[in-house]
């Protein structure tokens, strides 16, 4: 079993760790690289950039995604931007400051060494993306433009209108296409990983199912890279795409990989409020809007049904500006979300159901003109109008927090390798860089840092000792894993009950949103932990999955994902219960400062919580990796 | 609101399909078009019928997965926007709505409303990229790009790869898709070293995949959810002519 968790942080001063680590890592020579088969699951910013870069280096790569094209991975929906400490604005930015903002934004629950490396690499990412032809916003002189984002007092965010994720992903998809044409990468769209195969304690392949034909395949490899994104869809309603799921990482967890900080879920403050019961997803309005929009609600409950124009200036409460004068509307996401919940809980929320706050552009339009606002956010205003039928140039937007990103994920060491040798986890799928809260414009940065620059430098350190150790596809471990997958599919189809998948998923989501959402408390978490197994039991007794396994069957693919969410949800609640402190997005009502901010317990909980699956119905086992802070000073986060 | 639906059902590529009648009742005007189909599918499931297969993912108009022809229009009546951004308030109560897949020879039907658009990936694989190996990029601000060119490149790069252009075109042409990528990369100095070979290869693969020719009907521009301008097709033609001429002159 697992002993102490070794994060393998290199020795030496913080700023030199990454360089010295590379200096001493093992390498694979160019003529040997083609002898290694690497499986990459996922084709978003992390998976796509990793597959393309490993292909460029000469490895034989197979890349899998459930979408019908690699270009459709959910990274495409990221709107706002990507951070880098270029200091092009001459406003005092530096690698150290980006590092410090990120670690502070994460409420001191991430590793110093990982975050410093991320901040260091960020500059290379911008160079790389520009070279690929990513059309970042520019100034008239032809230089790159920047804007500000939450949790920072400098302008360091690079952007391509409100479609930064799309443009970065297309850059990386194009690099991937180049490798597909060169024959180094083989792409398998509409193919889902359903199990991880472990041979002699090492990850040596996966079992996949073609969503198109239902065909199940065994894929032996020398190393497996998971880049399968986050699990926000466990809440049913989130800003994630419909297909996003926890299956790949959860299957790996059940095979022995540790799941770290599963309860750390980011609730994004600026989303379009829920309108009805049949809503299938929530839509994000980029945080960049908070650069120019002012957040407010009426001061008095009685005014909440008035139209915003009828509420005079002195009767409005610009609560972020009031509570956090130095950051104002750009306070970090967890803090802004909770502040919105608080004013709505007080009965001052606006719109149907009272679950909304205004994001008002009237002042910005007065100051800058409608044209400038249109240029900065035009597409976001269009999206808003399509969904709500309202024109945000004329009336303030209504927004409310929604599940957006998951900081938790599979545990990895400094090399981004999990505790299972040969299993690497990158991007949102790992837990590594954002602590208990991710700052805006940092997800794109991490995905590309991991894929373009970190993994290609750390993977050889493992591979160098693995020459010729790839097992054949008919080895017993592969046969058993395939059999498990087949049995599970059969079981899902056999239930033949009465309830639809969505009804179970919705019920689970609502339960989590209430008990393990923006704020949590012991009693609620214990209730959830009782209810989830009951719901799971009902699912396996009464779910209806139509069709057959040897066909294009969208119900069946979703059924497997919902079944995994029903198990994973329990792990989330258990983690939230065990972390008896508040930190970042994890707000335990029992632990708050007198003015309602998250109160950490550094003495007992300055650690990563990594969970190990236990067979036969036992509770998972908790491993703690203590976090050591040598450079930053642990402090109560203040954005006042 | 209530609607009568005529939906294309087809079990797989080799079996002929047909329009089948359905009814949906009590739909809120704030329901999206795809949520309306979700509701129909839940009801079909309750009745023991097979749900209708259709593709979608982000449901906010950026991933390009959804691809439905609604009443004969690619992505339906609310342009610009993908069909996932269409809301039932755009229809009148009691309306009959015909829902079909994108009909393009180069996009074979997989099942019901789901199509295979891998031909578009193969066009990009032919050369729709800039060869820039990770690790070898120069400092970002060493490449100056006039704002006007960067903006034009961005307008072309906004393509979501849904294939509506080909579906709307009477010739089943993918010229707007190909033009968007060729234009995006040729507006930028980084794209210039491969400028000629890129356009020649992409056009060759586009033709080989069975897409038709452009005859300037502009239907593509009318339905494009990303508002890609048909003027980029003129740019593609210029780029192609320039490259072909250089090749024939032996440069």
Any key phrases for this structure?
heterodimer; A: 640 residues; alpha+beta; Flavocytochrome C3, Chain A, domain 1; Methane Monooxygenase Hydroxylase, Chain G, domain 1; 5-stranded parallel beta sheet; 5-stranded antiparallel beta sheet; 19 strands; globular; B: 251 residues; Ubiquitin-like (UB roll); Fumarate Reductase Iron-sulfur Protein, Chain B, domain 2; 5-stranded mixed beta sheet; 35% helix
Arithmetic mean pLDDT of chain A: 95
Total DSSP E strands of chain B:
7
Give the SSE string of chain B.
EEHEEEEEHHHHHHH
Going across the biggest sheet of chain B, name each strand in turn: 2-1-5-3-4
Helicity range of chain B: 25-40%
Q: Give the biggest beta sheet of chain A.
A: 5 strands, parallel
Mean pLDDT of chain B: 97
Structural class of chain A: alpha+beta
Number of helices of chain A: 17
Q: How would you describe the oligomerization state of the chains in this entry?
A: heterodimer
Strand content of chain A: 5-15%
> What global shape of chain B is seen?
elongated
Second-tier CATH architecture of the domain at 476-612 in chain A: Up-down Bundle
Helix content of chain A: 25-40%
What's the CATH superfamily of the domain at 476-612 in chain A, by name?
Answer: Fumarate reductase/succinate dehydrogenase flavoprotein-like, C-terminal domain
First and last CA, distance of chain A: 46 Å
Please report the distance between the alpha carbons of the first and last residues of chain B: 64 Å
- The CATH superfamily of the largest domain in chain B is known as Alpha-helical ferredoxin
CATH topology of the domain at 476-612 in chain A: Methane Monooxygenase Hydroxylase, Chain G, domain 1
Q: How many structural domains in the coordinates of chain B?
A: 2
Strand order of the largest sheet of chain A: 5-2-1-9-17
Entry summary:
Chain A is an alpha+beta fold and 640 residues long. Chain A has helices at 17-24, 30-33, 45-57, 95-105, 112-132, 164-182, 247-254, 319-323, 333-345, 362-368, 370-388, 443-463, 476-495, 501-515, 522-542, 554-578, 602-605; strands spanning 37-41, 60-64, 82-83, 157-158, 185-188, 191-199, 202-210, 216-220, 223-226, 259-260, 265-271, 294-298, 316-317, 357-360, 397-406, 409-410, 423-425, 607-612, 621-626.
């Amino acid at each position: 079993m697992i002993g102490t968790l070794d994060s393998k942080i290199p020795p030496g001063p913080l700023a030199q760790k990454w360089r010295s680590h590379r200096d001493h890592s093992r390498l694979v020579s160019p003529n040997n690289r083609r002898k290694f088969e690497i499986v990459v699951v996922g084709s978003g910013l992390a998976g796509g950039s990793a597959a393309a870069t490993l292909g460029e280096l000469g490895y034989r790569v197979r890349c899998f995604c459930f979408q019908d094209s690699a270009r459709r991975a959910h990274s495409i929906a990221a709107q706002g931007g990507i951070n880098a400490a270029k200091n092009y604005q001459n406003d005092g930015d530096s690698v150290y400051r980006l590092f410090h903002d990120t670690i502070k934004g994460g409420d001191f629950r991430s590793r110093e060494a990982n975050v410093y490396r991320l901040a260091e690499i960020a500059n290379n990412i911008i160079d790389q993306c520009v070279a690929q032809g990513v059309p970042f916003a520019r100034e008239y002189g032809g230089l790159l433009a920047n804007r500000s984002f939450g949790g920072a007092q400098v302008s360091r965010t690079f952007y391509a209108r409100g479609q930064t994720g799309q443009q970065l992903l297309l850059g990386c998809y194009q690099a991937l296409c180049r490798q597909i044409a060169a024959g180094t990468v083989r792409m398998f769209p509409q193919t889902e990983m359903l199990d991880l195969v472990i041979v002699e304690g090492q990850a040596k392949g996966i079992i996949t199912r073609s969503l198109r034909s239902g065909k199940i395949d065994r894929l032996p490899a020398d190393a497996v890279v998971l880049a399968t994104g986050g699990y926000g869809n466990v809440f049913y309603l989130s800003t994630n795409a419909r297909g996003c799921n926890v299956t790949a990482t959860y299957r790996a967890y059940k095979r022995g990989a540790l799941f770290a900080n599963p309860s750390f879920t980011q609730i994004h403050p600026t989303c379009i409020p829920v309108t009805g019961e049949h809503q299938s997803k929530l839509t994000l309005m980029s945080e960049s809007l908070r650069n120019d929009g002012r957040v407010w609600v009426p001061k008095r409950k009685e005014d909440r049904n008035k139209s915003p124009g009828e509420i005079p200036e002195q009767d409005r409460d610009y609560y972020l500006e009031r509570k956090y004068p130095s950051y104002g509307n750009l306070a970090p996401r967890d803090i802004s979300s909770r502040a919105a919940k608080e004013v709505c809980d007080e009965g001052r929320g606006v719109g149907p159901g009272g679950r909304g706050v205004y994001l008002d552009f009237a002042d910005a339009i007065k100051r800058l003109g409608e044209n400038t606002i249109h240029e900065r956010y035009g597409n976001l205003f269009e999206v808003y109008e399509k969904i709500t039928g309202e024109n945000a140039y004329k009336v303030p937007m209504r927004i409310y927090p929604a599940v957006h990103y998951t900081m938790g994920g599979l545990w990895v060491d400094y090399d981004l390798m999990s505790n299972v040798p040969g299993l690497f986890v990158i991007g949102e799928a790992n837990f590594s860089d954002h602590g208990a809260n991710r700052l805006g414009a940092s997800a794109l940065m991490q995905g590309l840092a991991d894929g373009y620059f970190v993994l290609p430098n750390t993977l050889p350190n493992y591979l160098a000792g693995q020459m010729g150790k790839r097992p054949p596809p008919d080895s017993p471990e592969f046969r058993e894993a395939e059999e498990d997958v087949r049995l599970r599919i059969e079981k899902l189809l056999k239930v033949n009950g009465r309830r639809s998948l969505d009804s179970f998923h919705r019920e689970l989501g609502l339960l989590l949103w209430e008990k393990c959402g923006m704020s949590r408390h012991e009693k609620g978490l214990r209730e959830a932990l009782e209810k989830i197994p009951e719901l799971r039991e009902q699912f396996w007794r009464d779910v209806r999955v139509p069709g057959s396994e040897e066909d294009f069957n969208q119900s069946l693919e979703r059924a497997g994902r919902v079944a995994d969410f029903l198990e994973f949800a329990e792990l989330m609640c258990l983690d939230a219960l065990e972390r008896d402190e508040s930190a970042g997005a994890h707000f335990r009502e029992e632990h708050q400062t007198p003015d309602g901010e998250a109160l950490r317990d550094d003495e007992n909980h300055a650690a990563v919580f990594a969970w190990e699956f236990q067979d036969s119905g036992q509770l998972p086992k908790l491993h703690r990796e203590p976090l050591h802070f040598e450079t930053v000073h642990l402090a109560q986060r203040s954005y006042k | 609101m209530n609607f009568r639906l005529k939906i294309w059902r087809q079990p797989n590529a080799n079996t002929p399909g047909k329009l089948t009648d359905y009814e949906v009742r009590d739909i809120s005007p704030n329901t999206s078009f795809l949520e309306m189909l979700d509701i129909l599918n839940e009801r079909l499931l309750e009745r023991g019928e097979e749900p209708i297969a259709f593709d979608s993912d982000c449901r906010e108009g950026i991933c390009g997965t959804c691809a439905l022809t609604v009443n004969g229009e690619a992505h339906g009546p609310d342009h610009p926007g993908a069909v996932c951004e269409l809301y039932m308030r755009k229809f009148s109560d009691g309306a009959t709505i015909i829902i079909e897949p994108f009909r393009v020879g180069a996009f074979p039907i997989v099942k019901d409303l789901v199509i295979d658009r891998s031909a578009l990936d193969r066009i990009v694989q032919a050369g729709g990229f800039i060869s820039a190996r990770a690790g070898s990029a120069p400092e970002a601000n060493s490449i100056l790009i006039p704002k006007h060119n960067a903006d034009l490149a961005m307008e072309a790069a906004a393509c979501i790869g849904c294939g509506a252009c080909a579906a709307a075109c009477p010739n089943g042409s993918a010229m707007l898709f190909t033009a968007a990528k060729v234009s995006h990369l040729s507006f930028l100095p980084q794209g210039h070293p491969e400028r000629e070979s890129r356009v020649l290869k992409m056009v060759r693969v586009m033709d080989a995949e069975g897409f038709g020719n452009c005859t300037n009907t502009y239907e593509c521009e009318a339905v494009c959810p990303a508002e890609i301008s048909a003027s980029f097709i003129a740019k593609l033609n210029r780029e192609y002519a320039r490259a072909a001429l250089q090749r024939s002159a032996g440069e």
